[in-house]
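Worked example

This section walks through a single chain of length 228. The input is the sequence exactly as stored; nothing has been trimmed or padded.
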Amino acid sequence: MDKDEVLAWLERKGTRRNIEGMVRYGVNAPRAFGVTMGTLLTLAKRLGKDHKLSMELWESGWYEARLLAALIGEPAEVTRRQMNAWAADFDNWAVCDTAIFHLFDRTPFAWEKVHQWATSPREFVKRASFWMMATLTVHDKAAHDSQFLALLPLIEQGASDERNFVKKAVSSALRSIGKRSSELNAAAVDSARRLALSEEAACRWVGKDALRELESAKVRSRLARRAK
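Given that input, the structure is written out below as tokens.
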């Protein structure tokens, strides 16, 4: 399938009900067909990795086309320029998170962009940084704890951002780091406690949200088993 065939396929599969569902979940996408993620995953499997098609679908501007672009993109072919260009296009959390989870955090530039984007004034570029911190804890098996420890100052700084989609990503980053190992859990809990005592409301929210999970019996038990 070429780009036009994919867009026509998406248009046929879309429904008004699905668009209304997106709105309820806080997805702001003016150009959307209304296709579910499950349907997109089925199509992505059928298409396979195709970086040229991925780039063309992204440029179309359609919400589902951009999700599909992230699903079929080839991490080894992604460039720094592409990452910056796509990040500048992020206009909702779903496209941002899908691009990070399925494509960007598997590239050689993931850690570089985490640091670069963490202080961006743009809401979804900044979210991308902290969401990628969270997904790297899952996908980068070779990363050393020291690499995640170095992110904690960025997290404490980013926690002061009151924008909802940034704030939630900061919490996800802190919680995910704190679940990777016992050493990281102790460090993440220290960060969360400092934030929970902050005079800034956003920081307090992030700190308390993280502590609820990081100090839970479930997380502590899982980390203890892993340490053995």
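What to look for: Residues 104 and 110 are 6 Å apart (CA to CA).
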